[in-house]
Design goal:
Helix content is 26%, strand content 32%. The protein is built from 1 helix and 11 strands; from the N terminus they run αβββββββββββ. It is elongated, with a radius of gyration of 34 Å. It starts with a helix and ends in a 37-residue tail after the last strand.
């Protein structure tokens, strides 16, 4: 093998090494990108599920039998400081009058994961066919994780069949402008706080 051939072999080996290194770097970048992309997708889906669970109450109609007599629309919770106002609309979709309607909600406690039920009466107390009424209940947001629409009752009837749907969206929060007043310090002699004759320390 001549010196020229040896240089060609070394050059080819160096080129192959660079190509392998480049392919390794590209493969590492592609794998890392796929992992990060998959992680971001899973995280986004998880966050969306949490938001959906908090904003949209679940529905339990297992106790209700027969054709639906009412339609319950669930509004997005209203924010009032540390309180949340849960509410919506009930519409009588039957051909009979419905009286003393009460919407049952099941709240999941943040503290221990247990649940408790609250009732929200419908106003007005009597709904004629195709008439609508409102219901609402206020809870402390820090005490509960989620809320579930658990049922509808009328007087002595503990379970009225109903259909559920999404109600009004929560209006965007308005940021109230705040005015900050800064009191100017009273001037010292000569009109300066810090002069060569009276140096002051800047905190």
């Amino acid at each position: 093998m001549t010196l020229l051939d040896s240089r060609d072999v070394d050059s080819n080996n160096e080129t192959q090494s660079r190509n392998r290194l480049l392919l390794g770097v590209l493969a590492a970048v592609v794998v890392t990108s796929l992992v990060l992309f998959g992680y971001s997708v899973l995280r986004r889906r998880h966050q969306q599920r949490v938001l959906d669970a908090q904003a949209k109450p679940e529905v339990d109609t297992s106790e209700a039998l027969g054709p639906p007599k009412a339609q319950i629309l669930v509004d997005e919770p209203m924010i009032k400081g540390e309180q949340r106002l849960l509410g919506g609309t009930v519409k009588n979709i039957s051909n009979e009058n419905l009286t003393n309607l009460t919407v049952n909600l099941e709240l999941v406690r943040r503290r221990d994961g247990g649940s408790e039920k609250v009732s929200a009466p419908v106003d007005p107390t009597e709904l004629a066919s195709q008439q609508e009424g409102r219901y609402s209940v206020q809870i402390h947001a820090a005490d509960y994780l989620t809320v579930k629409l658990a049922g509808l009752k009328s007087g002595n009837n503990p379970a009225i069949a109903f259909v559920a749907g999404a109600g009004q969206k929560r209006p965007p929060e308005k940021l109230e402008p705040k005015t900050i007043i800064v009191n100017r310090p009273s001037p010292t002699k000569g009109g300066f706080l810090n002069t060569p004759e009276t140096p002051g320390r800047v905190p």
